[in-house]
Amino acid sequence: MTITELQSGLDREVSGREMYALMAELYPICRSITGNGFRATLANLERQIPLIQHEVPTGTQVFDWTVPREWNIRDAYIKNARGERVVDFQRHNLHVLNYSVPVSRRVSLEELKQHLFTLPEHPDWIPYRTSYYREQWGFCVTARQLAQLTEPEYEVCIDSSLEPGHLTYGELYLPGETPDEVLISCHACHPSLCNDNLSGVVVATGLAKNLARIACRYSYRFLFIPGTIGSITWLSRNEEKVASIRHGLVLACVGDPGKFHYKRSRQGMAEIDRAAVHVLQHSGLEFAVADFDPYGYDERQYCSPAFDLAVGCLSRTPHGQFPEYHTSADNLELVRPDALGESLARCVAIVALLENNRTYCNLQPRCEPQLGKRGLYRAIGGVQDAQQTEKAMLWVLNLSDGKHSLLDIAERSGLSFDVIHTAAAALVEHELLKDVLEVTSSAGR
Amino acid sequence: MTITELQSGLDREVSGREMYALMAELYPICRSITGNGFRATLANLERQIPLIQHEVPTGTQVFDWTVPREWNIRDAYIKNARGERVVDFQRHNLHVLNYSVPVSRRVSLEELKQHLFTLPEHPDWIPYRTSYYREQWGFCVTARQLAQLTEPEYEVCIDSSLEPGHLTYGELYLPGETPDEVLISCHACHPSLCNDNLSGVVVATGLAKNLARIACRYSYRFLFIPGTIGSITWLSRNEEKVASIRHGLVLACVGDPGKFHYKRSRQGMAEIDRAAVHVLQHSGLEFAVADFDPYGYDERQYCSPAFDLAVGCLSRTPHGQFPEYHTSADNLELVRPDALGESLARCVAIVALLENNRTYCNLQPRCEPQLGKRGLYRAIGGVQDAQQTEKAMLWVLNLSDGKHSLLDIAERSGLSFDVIHTAAAALVEHELLKDVLEVTSSAGR
Amino acid sequence: MTITELQSGLDREVSGREMYALMAELYPICRSITGNGFRATLANLERQIPLIQHEVPTGTQVFDWTVPREWNIRDAYIKNARGERVVDFQRHNLHVLNYSVPVSRRVSLEELKQHLFTLPEHPDWIPYRTSYYREQWGFCVTARQLAQLTEPEYEVCIDSSLEPGHLTYGELYLPGETPDEVLISCHACHPSLCNDNLSGVVVATGLAKNLARIACRYSYRFLFIPGTIGSITWLSRNEEKVASIRHGLVLACVGDPGKFHYKRSRQGMAEIDRAAVHVLQHSGLEFAVADFDPYGYDERQYCSPAFDLAVGCLSRTPHGQFPEYHTSADNLELVRPDALGESLARCVAIVALLENNRTYCNLQPRCEPQLGKRGLYRAIGGVQDAQQTEKAMLWVLNLSDGKHSLLDIAERSGLSFDVIHTAAAALVEHELLKDVLEVTSSAGR
């Protein structure tokens, strides 16, 4: 099966439901940037795709950073005088400040309040807060819960550990025809948050499952990593591999029903940027494109100046722009199966464009070749509306001078890449077109 | 006489009437891509301009194409049972499918209908259809004629021949001061169609007549050719001349009263593109500019990748965008003398711009020269509104560093090329400016 | 004190009042392009800044021009039959056509009228007219004065002299850390005109006073010159210094309350152009930017093709665009202290940008450095709105690859230069950033 066949055969509905089901399994796990929750998540993914778990010891220097101690948590609560859990980690893992150090004692209400985080504007939502690099303990509670804390003293318990261990990440490498790589990266370090974190994980998994079934020109590398420290760790341990990365996408917030957003790489007009924008432009749906900004997900690291990789970020509603972001409302209701399916379809279309984006030479470059005698042209002249495929053939022939890729031609003609690619395939079949690399290599013989 | 004098002395009204009269003579001839109709058309033009007829034998290989057999037609009709011509080539030559093979027999109405072309949306118009490269016979009829065909059988006769012969085209070369050429090309292969075909023919003829009267810097080559196969044939037989073509225009659909349209060359920003757009911008009339598109007239061939010539296309309403296109309604009523006159004026203005677009060196490049002492500046200072010509002189002096052409200066200043050129001429006269080529050549001595 | 401290400490109100007071002193002096009025003006400025007066003899050839004879005037009037001065130079020095040759005789009203200039559309305003390069005499009068001239004969007297002497200009050079220069130029050749002429003079003086108090990277050259002939003379006598001029500003019409206008240099996107536009963009005020045009003030000469210096022009309402321009209404009422203060602040901001606009190398270019451990980042993660300074640090780190200046980074990020510069200073302090010149020079050791 070719990527083009994969693309046209993709069933978004079925794929969307599968990805949603996977998300539902992953949702309850309490993840963090290290620890058993991350491992459990990867173990679950291993049932779908043959990824490899990497463990990097605490204390490992990764560029300017150090792999932190490993965090694990078993239980946490705030109990009132009657011994009732008024805040309970077992009910929602967002209740604990992520990376909280252990604590177990009675505290006055006044002291407790200094360790509580809440969202006054959404009284029923629990905020998501972390403290990876400063030791402290804390709870995240709804505003209603906070209002009900009226007793003078409470018992607090966080049964966590912060100890030497490892940072864990998952990696899947699908070798292709060439060692040139496409990088697909997503963060998997957030606890029960769906759009921010799990949506990227399940769409990346869905894409990997599909690509594993076909032969590709590019090699594909999928990374399931803790945000920031994960990409820094991977880059630090794989500097020699970076030169092979031709294109890349960070996937995040791809499960909500909002319109698509593509954030360009630092290079701005790299092939991945043009491919993603082209796919969105021809999707028939509303979308937005943002310039690179060194604030966001792991594209920050991939696009740091010494690497400057062509890695953009595909989202639906971007981080921080939906009210449920980093709250308990980013749950299984916010994310929808059909949105996941559509996101996967967009990813497949972008990959198909990259795979098929070749540069050709017109083998009859002096005037137009006679399409009619090859059955490539309408038989009766004088009809006003030429067919789109004929136009596409004329565009491909006109611009295939060895300097314009099919994407260049699609952009200049205003036609979709798929139409241009179909036209090019017909012309190749009729020996009117040849890949510039083959022309060059045969000329060299 | 200089081109500038020619331009300012051009009488559009007289020229328009002359071109219209020529069109009226050419209108009845049944032209095709080969044959005696084409020859008769050229013979008529020869009374206006000293063009040369070229004959290329059937079967000649021209790049990917082959010169077809020559087509000629004497008569054609459909007769009813009473022997009446219900469709008659003698009444309108569009009634025959152009390049129809001969036929002479009785056919059932059912069979006949498979050979009829009509335009249901314009019941009184005859469509124009061709079948150059597939042997068939057919008639083009109005929808009303079709409705009246009710008899079970008709006699059809097409007294045509499709035999080895020649492809004919006309060429006029006006040598100039330099061998660098401007190519003016028009198709002359359509039967009784005015805007599409004859308007370009008569405006090109008008332009040639005018340019033949003056001394030009550039050499001018006029081609009167059958569409597509004609330009392919010319290019195939004149590959060594292509390198001399600096600028070119295809003229087509320049006789209707619609606004001007200029379609850029494949290069997009070649001097001809900028010249044509500038002339239209400063014409005071509405106009439109389109990017290159490999669909249209013979610019398709001139702009094929191996040639990539700087050839654009000047039209009023472009092909396919007026309802009368390729129908019997594209007749002497659609085209107007004043529209032809204005089109000729635009062509002359474009040619004048190309002829006068030189690059100069300011001979006093350090600060402004003192214009006042040369009588080039107003005598009393302090008047708020400087004259446009003074501004033009300052622009020319400021940008004439040997790197900016007068067109560059006109574009950057927003002034018209004519104003800039007049200012430059005054500065040359006062020895403040010198053609960069003269500066370079005298420096080389 | 650094330029940054100077900028933040500038008291616009106090400065505005000081500049306005200086203008009030200079206002009554009858200046011209040569003569004692110009010298008296410079003598006054010397009490503020240590400028040097240069004298260039009449007849000196300066490129295409010649230094004219020196003009001085003591008195002038038109007397009626009763011996009353109906037009009196002592009341307003605009009453005399600037550079009038002496005259003293009785003339008929008819003859007199050929020597009178008036402004019918503003009956109470005296126009400003000059005749530097054509010998004539004349008076400028209000339309009301003209209407009252009803006697058949008048006595006219212009007690002026036009004799070999000198052209005078003032120059102040403030040496900086490098010989690279910033040129600040203003014309000081107009008689009692405030916005056009004196506003530039007092703002340039204010800027010079301020810059004289601090150590700068660039050297600064201030020119107080007669318009056109002054810049031509300076350039002619200082050709070897021109190569040191990196950036420049002509200051004119900077005292009225209109919005700021910046006119780009001929180069168009030089650093001074980008700096001026950036400062205006982030001023929070309405402003306009115009492309270069070879019509205006002395930027015409600095931007002539052989010099092509990066010199723009900063104005509030540009010359010719306010009704009072070149009339007696361009007086101490049109110009306002706060407008002068704001203009000075803009100049200081532009200079501060140029001084601080360095290019850095990120010393931790592989991924982001860990800002948190250096106290440069918020302690609690997950807060939605990152601080502007954090964003600025991320932008500086991301783009500081030795190829992007801080202005490049400010432009691309949309943040103000000041915020970007503050972020860069913090990163330099934490040894995360180093000036690219230092990196290069230490690499060379």
Largest interface: A-B, 27 and 34 residues
Euclidean distance between termini CA atoms of chain A: 32 Å
What proportion of the residues of chain A is helical, as a percent range? 25-40%
Structural class of chain A: alpha/beta
| Count of DSSP-assigned helices of chain A | 15
Quaternary state reads: homotrimer
Question: What topology, given as strand order, has the largest sheet of chain A?
Answer: 1-10-12-11-13-16-14-15
Q: Uncertain spans of chain A, ≥5 residues at pLDDT below 50?
A: 379-385
User: How would you state the average pLDDT of chain A, rounded?
Assistant: 95
Could you walk me through the main structural features you see in this protein, from its secondary elements to its overall organization?
The structure is a homotrimer of 445-residue chains. In chain A, strand 2 (61-62) and strand 3 (65-66) form a beta hairpin. With 445 residues, the first copy, chain A, is α/β, with parallel strands linked by helices. In chain A, the strands form 5 sheets. In chain A, strands 1-10-12-11-13-16-14-15 form an 8-stranded mixed sheet, with helices on both faces. The first copy, chain A, is elongated. Helices cover 34% and strands 22% of the residues of chain A. The first copy, chain A, starts with a helix and ends with a helix. The A-C interface holds A 62-65, 127-134, 228, 231-232, 235-236, 239, 266, 291, 293-295, 300-301, 303-308, 320, 325-326 and C 362, 364-370, 372-373, 379-382, 384-386, 391, 394-395, 397-401, 412-413.
